[in-house]
UniProtKB/TrEMBL annotation:
<dbReference type="InterPro" id="IPR020843">
    <property type="entry name" value="ER"/>
</dbReference>
<dbReference type="Pfam" id="PF00107">
    <property type="entry name" value="ADH_zinc_N"/>
</dbReference>
<dbReference type="GO" id="GO:0070402">
    <property type="term" value="F:NADPH binding"/>
</dbReference>
<dbReference type="GO" id="GO:0016651">
    <property type="term" value="F:oxidoreductase activity, acting on NAD(P)H"/>
</dbReference>
<dbReference type="InterPro" id="IPR011032">
    <property type="entry name" value="GroES-like_sf"/>
</dbReference>
<dbReference type="InterPro" id="IPR013149">
    <property type="entry name" value="ADH-like_C"/>
</dbReference>
<dbReference type="Pfam" id="PF08240">
    <property type="entry name" value="ADH_N"/>
</dbReference>
<dbReference type="InterPro" id="IPR036291">
    <property type="entry name" value="NAD(P)-bd_dom_sf"/>
</dbReference>
<keyword id="KW-0521">NADP</keyword>
<dbReference type="InterPro" id="IPR013154">
    <property type="entry name" value="ADH-like_N"/>
</dbReference>
<feature type="domain" description="Enoyl reductase (ER)">
    <location>
        <begin position="16"/>
        <end position="334"/>
    </location>
</feature>
<protein>
    <submittedName>
        <fullName>NAD(P)-binding protein</fullName>
    </submittedName>
</protein>
<keyword id="KW-0560">Oxidoreductase</keyword>
């Protein structure tokens, strides 16, 4: 069927801090029975993608190399394989998941995927938004579905100025859940208040635990989510109610979390990890329903992810570098 442009990870990249992707060509696949060929046109660059490049992301386990990274994208159906008929040619779709785990991810122009993993994109949802459907919005939705914070109670989150942090604020507001949002830079505070944050704490100059006590009348946060780890996890746990739950879902400060044992023993705060991939697997037959509910939030204009610079596939390494910048304007993309 011809050739396509693709980005490749080599086995020699493993655990290298300066690992790069290579640009090259590969065959355009022919969709098999029950499969759909998708022409991918836009891909966000997420931290998980960068970790795929040096082969340290648990959701990317290719057995052969070179391998194609990339966990999110939007594209159009260009061919249906035998017995695949749900999506007319030209339908815009996202996949949950793409073939990322086995090393055939979204950082290429064409991929064949089972039609059962595809979700159609509503006409009023932009490619920029649709391409970001999975990792952040579905994770935030999973938090709220599983933590079950009652209406009027507080959910505490770290790195609240991030894309997922802003989406969680909006989703929580929709359920009547209040949010306490931790940020490092004070200029982010008003931005979050403007989109519906109830409280913002600037960690660089405020005592987090003392402020949470003040905000909640000493009841503390009902539950919390932390993507920073390190010593921040201990601060978050100390700010959460007795018998509350803290999800650790990121490693921004490093691979370990430090938690005061007293909070675990005497206050019975439950600290556990949350990975969207595992949650989706556990949903079983309810998975399609939950994903449909998230896409409905996009269609209703409730979730509109921020968008930033776009780079051609040939400039993928520059795009990765841009994605790590602290004050970048919106999500970085690879297009083409």
């Amino acid at each position: 069927m011809g050739k396509q442009v693709a980005l490749f990870v080599q086995e020699s990249n493993r655990k290298k801090s300066d690992a790069k992707v290579d640009i090259g060509e590969k065959d355009i696949p022919k969709p098999g029975p029950g499969e759909v060929l998708v022409r991918i046109n836009l891909r966000p660059v997420n931290p998980s993608d960068a970790y795929m490049v040096n082969l340290t992301y648990p959701g990317f386990k290719p057995q052969t190399f070179p391998a194609v990274p990339g966990g999110e994208a939007v594209g159009k159906v260009v061919e249906n394989g035998p017995s695949a008929s749900r999506f007319p040619i030209g339908t815009r779709v996202v996949a949950v998941p793409w073939n990322t785990y086995d090393g055939d991810g979204s950082w290429q122009q064409y991929t064949a995927v089972p039609e059962d993993v595809l979700i159609p994109v509503p006409d009023n949802v932009s490619d920029e938004s649709a391409s970001q459907f999975l990792i952040n919005p579905v994770t935030a939705y999973g938090f709220l579905e599983t933590l079950k914070v009652p209406e009027g109670e507080y959910l505490l989150q770290t790195a609240a100025g991030s894309a997922i942090g802003r989406q969680l604020i909006v989703m929580a507001k929709l359920r009547g859940v209040k949010t306490i949002n931790l940020v490092r830079r004070k200029e982010q505070a008003q931005e979050l208040l403007d989109i519906g944050a109830d409280e913002v704490i600037v960690t660089s100059n405020e005592d987090v635990v003392a402020r949470v006590k003040e905000i909640t009348g000493r009841r503390m946060a009902y539950a919390a989510v932390d993507c920073v780890a390190g010593e921040m996890t201990g601060t978050v746990v100390a700010s959460t109610r007795d018998h509350g739950t803290v999800y650790v879902y990121g490693l921004l400060s490093g691979p370990t979390s430090t938690v005061g044992a007293g909070n675990l023993i005497f206050r019975n705060v439950h600290v556990t990890g949350f990975w969207m991939v595992t949650w989706l697997e556990q949903l079983g037959d309810a998975k399609a329903e939950k994903l449909g509910e998230v896409m409905d939030l996009f269609a209703r204009g409730i979730i509109v992810p921020t968008s930033g610079k776009k780079f051609p596939l040939e400039q993928a390494n520059e795009a990765i570098a841009e994605s790590w910048k602290v004050a970048k304007e919106g999500k970085v993309f690879l297009e083409g």
